[in-house]
Design brief:
Structural class: alpha/beta
Largest sheet: 7 strands, parallel
Keywords: DNA-binding, Transcription, Transcription regulation
InterPro entries: NagB/RpiA_transferase-like, SorC_transcr_regulators, Sugar-bd_dom_put, WH-like_DNA-bd_sf
Strand order of the largest sheet: 1-9-8-5-2-3-4
Helix content: 40-55%
Strand content: 5-15%
Oligomer: single chain
Family: Belongs to the SorC transcriptional regulatory family.
Protein name: DNA-binding transcriptional regulator LsrR (DeoR family)
Radius of gyration: 20 Å
Number of domains: 2
GO molecular function, one term: DNA binding
Amino acid sequence: MTAYSEDELKIRAAWLYYVEGNTQERISEQLSVSRMKIHRLLVAAREEGVIQFRIRDKADSCFLLEEQLLKRFGLTEAIVVPRPAEAAAVHLLVAQAASLYLANAAADAMTIGVGWGRTLNQALRRMTARPLKQATVVSLLGGLTKAQPLNPTECAWELAEKIDAACYLLPVPAYADRPEMRDAFMSQRAVQEVINRARRADMALVSVGSLGPEGTISNYGFLDIEEFEELKALGATGDILCSFLGEDGGLIDHPVNRRVCAFPPEELSRIPKVVIASGGYEKVGVLRAALALTRASVLITDETAALGLLAG
């Protein structure tokens, strides 16, 4: 027996098959219905127009979560993708939703600030090219000294190429060795010019990172184990633009945060539209903190994270 209605089964089967790429046999196990029924559901989804170039609808439970998120966090938009069959696929599904959102939200003469992370990287790679007039992209974070696929500068360049926009980068490392070096880097006129452009952005697209080993900062070896442990002891939930946040959304008082070369995360709330795209249960704490800090108007996440946010 399954806990889902016929319509929910149809939508979930379509999502698992067309977006996640599962076999019909795997989907039948996941949804606890026969393989023949899965086949009929997919045929019906195509005939009824649920399947077009993308999944037009989602499960009713996702729509309900979206409405609850709007009310709880004062959002103007919330997009919740269904829980993936494999937890590791969360960032890919959130990225797909973010790419569709951004392709529609970007407009002529718009200035867009861009953060970084695995989800944003995938979102921008998947985004359909749509040239705009007089658009500008500004990287909100310094770069890496060694070329990497997740380099913050690559995220900005990717979006700029997709929308045919001018692109401005922060010519500094993501982390300085010492706070005084960070202050020297950030005081440069060229850097301040980019920061001031970011302050005039119409929209900011950012993600958040966890403190776990799967986090981007951990994977890139920016910090040592002792620093991570100190941040955890101080109540850090994760990071936004490489700055670590406490549960209330405030910046953690630690030397690591004084070494970050980036747009000040506390100033994100002044940008008219802040879009946060991130998912997974391990991100619940930092998502809640980031929503408080940035006063984001748009959240793109998954069922698991949405349920965690609403349970708190």
